[in-house]
């Protein structure tokens, strides 16, 4: 399985579409076996296809808009929002079952957490 974490360097980004990079972790069972840091092609690029083409099964982010959520759902990619902290720790917490999505939806294109609605 591959887990992508929308990131700012090594930390989880507050908003999927505005992240500077993706930390992509390849896993086996509950272990991370390898990782790569991929620069985001930018918000105007089709980020869902960009990640799907890399074999991503799960996307982790602080927040995400409704449009991106719909596109990930259509691709069968699991979405986890509400994450924060170090990207690798978030990916491991997902594998351990301790990272639970808050299912929030960003209603504006800002990094502020006030934009999240459930």
UniProtKB/TrEMBL annotation:
A Pfam entry, by short name: Nitro_FeMo-Co
Start and end residues of each Dinitrogenase iron-molybdenum cofactor biosynthesis domain: 9-95
SUPFAM superfamilies listed in its UniProt record: Nitrogenase accessory factor-like
Superkingdom to which the source organism belongs: Bacteria
Protein name: Dinitrogenase iron-molybdenum cofactor biosynthesis domain-containing protein
Species assigned in the record: Christensenella hongkongensis
């Amino acid at each position: 399985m591959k887990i992508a974490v929308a990131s700012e360097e090594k930390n989880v980004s507050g908003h999927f579409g505005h992240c500077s990079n993706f930390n992509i972790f390849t896993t086996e069972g509950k272990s991370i076996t390898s990782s790569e840091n991929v620069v985001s092609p930018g918000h105007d690029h089709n980020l869902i296809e960009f990640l799907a083409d890399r074999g991503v099964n799960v996307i982790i982010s602080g927040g995400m808009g409704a449009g991106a959520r719909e596109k990930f759902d259509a691709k069968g990619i699991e979405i986890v929002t509400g994450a924060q902290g170090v990207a690798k720790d978030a990916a491991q917490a997902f594998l351990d079952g301790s990272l639970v999505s808050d299912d929030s939806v960003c209603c504006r294109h800002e990094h502020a957490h006030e934009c999240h609605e459930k």
